[in-house]
Input
Amino acid sequence: MDKPPVDPQNPWLELRRLTPARIALGRSGTSLPTSAQLDFQYAHAQARDAVHLPFDHAALSAQLAERGRESLLLHSAASDRNTYLQRPDLGRRLSDDSAQVLRDYALAHPGGVDLAIVVADGLSALAVNRHTLPFLARLEEQSAADGWSLSPVVLVEQGRVAVADEVGELLGAKMVVILIGERPGLSSPDSLGLYFTYQPKVGLTDAQRNCISNVRLEGLSYGVAAHRLLYLMREACRRQLSGVSLKDEAQLQTVESDDASDMKGNFLLSPPEA
Output
C-alpha cells in the first residue's frame, strides 16, 4: 500500500515512521484518503481471519515429534468455535474426555513435573501456529540449563487462559505456562501471550498469574520472552507465589552493557549521575 507523500512541514510524519499506530493518515475533504481506508479494512479483515483460523494442531504435533517432543491433544468444554466465542467459561475447563486423558497420563507417569507447557489457540490460532515452535526452542534450551523437568506439550483446542490451571493440577505440575493467541489488534493479528502460574489449580483468578505479552517478530523476541519466563519460574519457586505479588524484574543484556548488573531501574529513565 502506497504511503502518503512526505511533507516536510508536517511534524506528524516523523512520528509515523516510529510507530505502526494509525496517525498522520491525511485526508480527502472531510474523509480519510482511499489508501488509508483500504489499509484499515485490510487490517480489520486480518484480525477477523486470525480469530476464526483453525488451530493446526496436527502440523504442530508432527513438528514437535520431529524434535523428539511428546504432545497430547486435548479439547476444552467448548465443543466448537461459535460456542467458544459465546461461552468463555467453557473454554476455561477441559472436556470430560480430555480430563480423563490427563488423569490416565498422570497415573502412568507419577511424580509430576516442574513445568507443564500448554498451547491453546485462544483468539488467534495464527499466533500459535507461527510462534510456538521457535519460542519453545528457546524455552527448552534455557530450562534444560537450569535442570527443570517439562511435561509433554499439551495442545488444547478452543482453550482459554484458565484451562492451563486444570492441566497443571491434573499433571501434578509445580508450575504451568500457557502459550495462547492474544486478541488480534489492527496492527498485530499474530501476537502470542504467555501466562504463568505457580501451583496451578482450578479456580485461580488472573491475580495469581503473570503475563508476558506480544511475543512475535515485531514485538518481544522469543529469547527475551523465554528469559523473562525463566526469571519468573526461579522467583516463583523461591518465593512460592506468582501473580500480582511477583514482579518481572528480569535483567537483560544490551548492546550498551556487557554486564547484566548494570540493567537496574526503569529503562525509560536516565541513569543516575556518577
